[in-house]
Amino acid sequence: MAESGLRQDPQSTAAATVLKRAVELDSESRYPQALVCYQEGIDLLLQVLKGTKDNTKRCNLREKISKYMDRAENIKKYLDQEKEEAKETPGISLRFCCESKHLRS
């Protein structure tokens, strides 16, 4: 999804690379990192959209941006919900913190 039709200029290539990484992180359930990559990739696609004159390409870019934004919004909602649940149950936030540190090793 991140690569089709984008590999034409450096910004398109950068967007495809960042979004590909976002999808990888997403599939690994590394949601905070995936969200950052989705946001950066969407910003890059918006820059590409601004410089695109062809209406068909603009339509395709808008569609891709919309799909990535939907996914990023869902991840954001999930992370916000996790954060709220952690506030309500302090023991869980400590466990989550320890698991996060363990996963980075």
Automatic annotation (TrEMBL):
MIT domain ranges (all copies): 8-86
Keyword rRNA-binding carried by entry: no
Gene Ontology terms: cellular component: late endosome membrane; midbody
The keyword Translocase is assigned to this record: no
Annotated compartments: Late endosome membrane; Midbody
Chief place where the protein resides: membrane
SUPFAM superfamilies (alphabetical): MIT domain
Membrane topology, record value: Peripheral membrane protein
An example Gene Ontology biological process: cell division
One Pfam match: MIT
Keyword tags: Cell cycle, Cell division, Endosome, Membrane, Transport
PANTHER family the UniProt entry points to: LD24550P (PTHR15508:SF8), RIBOSOMAL PROTEIN S6 KINASE (PTHR15508)
Subunit structure comment from the entry: Homodimer. Interacts (via MIT domain) with CHMP1A, CHMP1B, CHMP2A and IST1.
Protein name: MIT domain-containing protein 1
Source organism phylogeny: Eukaryota, Metazoa, Chordata, Craniata, Vertebrata
Gene: MITD1
